[in-house]
Design goal:
By secondary structure, the protein is α/β, with parallel strands linked by helices. It is built from 18 helices and 13 strands.
Length: 415
């Protein structure tokens, strides 16, 4: 197996420099295309050069095959998407899952870097949060009457995306599951009674930051302009810090999203009217972001139950002392750093003010976070993923003789 070149299909709907999931997809393609023949199945044409520019990969120079849905299917699904009032609908993903099932016979491994997926048989899935775990629990909840469980199953079966995808929980649960963090692995176990292996996502290397004394006394907050990121809370926290007499600035890096355009525009108005101490950066390139991080002393991230928080890792790798909301992936990134984890706005204000007024606390935080930065490097992720793929294939080959009809049936998702 060690010298065998595999055929790998990677499923990810949107391969553009957008967010954390796309960082994972880009580095998965980079890691696997070094040793194997890799195709990517996406909804739109991947921007490989953009991914290379922003995430440090080398995809444009690799022989990566690209598979896209036929035009008629894209038109039909896009029409259905516009008629769906749910901005978070997964109909594009649903169509790609069905296509992946039809293609899997041509590949040794099918990998989905977008979350749980029905790949037609055993594959590999990288999970951020169990996005359909509630539907699974509702249909299998112990103690519920047969009638209630039947209604839950029927209601889930009739969802438009489920009809389009033919999604099977049994096939999804047959996948090797990788989880973005320990917290996500716990949620996957609770949602599906399914064990997951933690593989922390890669954090692209940031430019080396300026010495601490040369940095501005400013905070950076990075995230899409959607409600879940709670950037409005960050604004309020730092407004209160300034009221206490500490003249800090805030740099918000993010863009309005199609899912929540009204919220995003309202947040833009609020940030732009907050005063000269707040700067909103929209459409920032990764080079420009690295330069911004290199000049600032602090970072802050306030999302609740963030699965991991790649932007937190980026801020830390750039040398920013970063405050995070407790209880999610960001807390696992900063580790047991004293004074950096907060549970509510009041605690955030107190901890930030204490840090700002204590040079010794700043030195301790800088020293601690320097030991955390390399735990989430790109090569660590690449080797972990290659190991997962090797283990997956070797396990399949141990179960049935290589080249047997049983292997062929398993790869096709047939009994």
């Amino acid at each position: 197996m060690a010298d065998r070149r595999l055929r790998v299909l990677v499923l990810h709907p949107r391969l553009e420099p957008v967010g954390g999931a796309e960082v994972v997809a880009a580095w998965a393609l980079d890691a696997l295309s070094r040793d194997h023949d890799v195709d990517v199945l996406a909804w739109t044409e991947p921007d490989l050069e953009g991914l290379d520019r922003d995430y440090g990969t080398s995809l444009a120079s690799r022989a990566i095959g690209i598979r896209l849905p036929p035009t008629w299917l894209r038109v039909a699904v896009e029409t259905a998407q516009r008629l769906d009032f749910d901005p978070w609908s997964v109909q594009r993903f649903a169509a790609l899952m069905r296509i992946a099932r039809s293609l899997r016979r041509h590949y040794d491994v099918v990998l989905c870097t977008y979350g749980e997926a029905d790949l037609g048989g055993a594959g590999i899935q990288y999970v951020y949060l169990p996005w359909c775990g509630t539907a699974y629990r509702d249909g299998t909840k112990p103690g519920e009457s047969m009638a209630r469980r039947a209604r839950a199953r029927i209601g889930f079966a009739l969802r438009p995306w489920r009809l389009l995808s033919g999604f099977s929980f049994d096939r999804m649960r047959s996948n090797l599951t990788l989880a973005v963090s320990e917290g996500t692995a716990t949620r996957v176990l609770a949602a599906y009674d399914l064990d997951a292996t933690v593989l922390h996502p890669p954090i692209p290397v940031a430019a080396e930051g300026l010495p601490w004394a040369q940095r501005e006394n400013g905070f950076v907050c990075i995230g899409r302009l959607v409600a879940d990121k709670r950037i409005d809370r960050v604004l309020e926290i730092l407004r209160r810090v300034r009221e206490r007499g500490d003249e800090v600035s805030l740099h918000v890096v993010g863009n309005v999203q199609d899912e929540e355009p009204g919220y995003g525009r309202a947040l833009v108005d609020r940030l732009e009217s907050a005063g000269p101490w707040v700067t909103l950066h929209r459409g920032l390139s990764r080079t420009e972001l690295a330069a911004l991080l290199a000049r600032q002393r602090f970072g802050i991230h306030a999302m609740v139950d963030e699965p991991f928080g790649i932007v937190v890792g980026e801020m830390i790798r750039a040398g920013c002392v970063t405050f995070v909301q407790g209880g999610g992936g960001p807390e696992s990134i900063v580790g047991d750093a004293p004074g950096l984890v907060f549970r509510d706005q009041d605690e955030a204000v107190e901890r930030i003010v204490a840090m700002l007024r204590s040079p010794s606390a700043q030195e301790a935080a800088i020293s601690h976070l320097a030991t955390r930065a390399d735990l989430f490097g790109t090569e660590r992720f690449a080797e972990g993923l290659r190991h997962a793929v090797r283990s997956f294939v070797e396990s399949a080959e141990r179960e049935v003789a290589p080249g047997s009809r049983a292997v062929d049936r398993a790869r096709r998702g047939r009994p």
